[in-house]
Amino acid sequence: MDLISFIYRKTQLPQKSVENTVVLLNQDCTIPFISRYRKEATGNLDEVQVGAIVQYKTQFEALEKRKKAILKAVDEQGVLTTELKSKFENCSDIVSLEDLYLPFKKSKKTKAETARKNGLEPFAKIIMAQRSEEIEFIASKYLNATVENEEDAIEGALHIIAEWINERTDIRNQLRKQLERHALIATKAIKSKKDSNPQVANEKAQKFRDYFDFSEPLNRCPSHRFLAIQRGEKEGFIRVKLENDDARAIQNIERRIIKSNNASTPYLEQAIADAYKRLLFPSISNEILKNAKLKADNAAIEVFAKNLRQLLLGAPLGEKRILAIDPGFRTGCKVVCLDAQGYLKHNETIYPHAPQNDSKGAIKKISSLVDAYKIEAIAIGNGTASRETERLIKRISFKQPPEVYVVSEAGASIYSASKIAREEFPNYDVTVRGAVSIGRRLADPLAELVKIDAKSIGVGQYQHDVDQVQLKTALDTVVESCVNSVGVNINTASISLLSYVSGIGPKLAENLVTYRNENGAFRSRQNIKKVPRLGGKAFEQGAGFLRIKDGDNALDDSAVHPERYSIVQKIAKDHKLSSSDLLGNQEVLQKINLEKYIDTTIGLPTLHDIIEELKKPGLDRREKAKMFTFDQNIRTIEDLKPGQLLPGIVNNITNFGCFVDLGIKESGLIHISNLADGFVSDVNAHVNLHQQLIVKVLEIDTKRKRIQLKLHKSKMN
Fold first, then answer.
1. Model-level pTM?
2. In the predicted model, what is the mean pLDDT of residues 155-180?
């Protein structure tokens, strides 16, 4: 099977679209570039579809690489026939390939290999043939210095037969299907870790108490539960195993092996039971668990990716003068003032809370800073002392009251101690950097959050338990997609943000910023070509996603690619206008006959994109930030009571529900069953990250710090 056929079979996308997309990928084109600027070639495939082609292209290449390694290994053994080579080459998945290769693997010393060296393989073939009634008599003919009696000869022959059974692809597939459909995942507590007295039970162990004696069908075990079980096993609190109907499995194998009822039958039954218990079940059950882990990883990564996308595309406040506060008690509240471009203008510390309790001094200082720096918004981190700080701010009588926002601190401490933060603010400590990050993420979540390792943002489930390489790849893809969908102001963007622009990467991003610092702001996209080591390919891939505000060419602040400027100029000329006069000119743009501008290089999909962009050039498609206030009477979990209706903000989404920030230390859970009156299959279909909700309190477990909620009403407008 060739690459195109493989991808087509997996995706069912048009074959021509697949072919052209593969060509573009082989030319080092990125997913955002292909899906945005090569729609004619791909047949208008979106990012998800192009991403699927990338995934299966990688999968196919890995499969082909493994085939080559196997063919070489089998050929070196001198047993590679034309028929066998064809079988290997026609394998379309890794499982069937490895099953086919199993008899040729050079494994460590096995019982069957020892028996072969002792000359017992011909005897094994006689038993397997099921024609002889004199098994013990025949066994006596195979005695030698290492095979001392008939029992040893029979045992060795049965080891060889057990290995043959283990290598049968039909038997392996049969057992594989049985386990996939009927196996139970079962867990037991490790006694040394289990404490029957909940008063003194280890707090960490109690997280896994639901799995101290647990079982359910593996195919019904949701991803979050499987990963929780895996974590419990990893941390040494539970043992995990697969349970199967062994008798049924052995009977299924016997039906395939035993063809008659004679003296060979009991020996074959013995070999089959041995093959199943010693070889087949351990091997296939490990494979099934590995596949279950892979599926759980994929589900968890998908949830994390969805959450990350929503977080990165969260509503920006925009270019406003912001006073940001990183609240605290003993160490005080770190205060910073940022200008509209996010540059640090002032910083200091106030001590309004215990033990200093200098609220009067804090109020006076905040009031004077707001006046001095003409502050338009105040951002308060949502960590320790957040609610107390918010109440303090609302006591202040400002001349021109700024808008007040509570901002998630997730990952701010990671950023403040990072190399990026040290390079941005070499003369300031981590507390100042953290406060700046809080303020900047209110202004533009995307621009600030790209500086933080996505895993540290805390919007996933079991992100530290899944395959880390796969997780990083998925999250990097999401970040790249978000950055390019919004576009980047090349004259203000950080190295971190620029590095995610299509075709740019970290090194070119650094070169861009260095050139900008040395030569001043870019005036046109064409100037980008002057950046050292930024060649034609990088310009082609990235130029459409880089924006230049108030530059020499109005189109440079749009998503129209420079390669299409000539089309815009032609359209403008046909209507006796300049390109800049065409921008935002709804009356003219709605009347344009696009068919007139189709040629061999551009079709209707791209022309439609150009017209839509000309209607609203440079528009940030993200929503604007909205203010939000928690219930001021709720300060701790002890203040909660069943039946209360409270405002909250969704701060994490999982497959089993969503967590809601109520303005206290503990987040509440809206289980998937409490999101709607009917059946809910997808949490994301009902709530979004950072969505403002009204929730009803159902249950409060103060000992375990758990809050059960029900969705009452969405506050999204």
1. 0.86
2. 97
